[in-house]
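Reopening this one. Same input as before:
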Amino acid sequence: MNKNFILYAAILIFGLVAPFLFPAFKVQLSILCVLIVLATTWNIQGGEMGYNSFGNILFYGLGMYLCASVQVGMFFPLAEWTESGGEKTFVHTPTQFFQGMAVGLVVAALVPTIVAGLIGYSILGLRGHYFAICTLGLGVAAGEISGGIEIIGAGQGFTTPPFPNVGSLEAMGIETMKYKIIGWMISAFFCGLAGGIMGGLVGYIDSTDVAFDGREMGVFMVLMAILGGKGTLWGPIIGATIFHIFKEGFWTFFLGWQYVALGVLIVVIVIYFPEGIMGWLREKYPERFGEVVDEKDRKAQVELK
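Same output, byte for byte:
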């Protein structure tokens, strides 16, 4: 049997049984899964295609608002929900909650995908830091705009329903723009889905500090992928796992020092792991990645270092 198949099956089984093995960490495990999805989807654009985007927070926040709005709007007047504090006035039955969430997640995944496709041609024509700055502006603008829309809570926020009881390619004739847009749409699909799920986990949506939080979550997406090794399959997964454990450890035991610790982590990554953990491992143990290394070349590289 293929070793990779066994590994993937083991990870899948662990993911399914982990909430039962560690019931006290259900929420943290759920957040970890969302972070892995975010890091992996950013890696499609930033790692595989070389477009360092800060715009995925747009799809994440959009998905968060869409999922919660659909979940409420299917059964109650959305404007009255946000005006009256939501769950204080209206209560979802378990059936309503899960039906609304199912439809909401579908909408949260599809609409950001369409938005990514619509703006793809104008955005993905930019290069380098121009693209990064433009996508950063998208997230900031989305946060400001959503903060002024009354039906979704505007500046006072949106309480979600509580859980019920219960480059060289062009020369080869390949249409790179088409594939760039497809890649960005895939990222948007899963970012929107992750945002919809996270909205239900945190229970409250603020336009700039939760949904379109480019200062934290937008940066975290990039940091997690780079930490593990962008452009690799396992890099974002490893990076998101290490980052989440690191962040929660400092938030829990060293509150007040968490941002200092994150700053130090960024410096360490840039200086010691510029290619990420997977890149460092590939360089140190190339034979384990299927690369044939001549012993003389290895000794020469060691001497140069």
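So the earlier flakiness isn't reproducible anymore. For the record, The longest strand covers residues 158-159.
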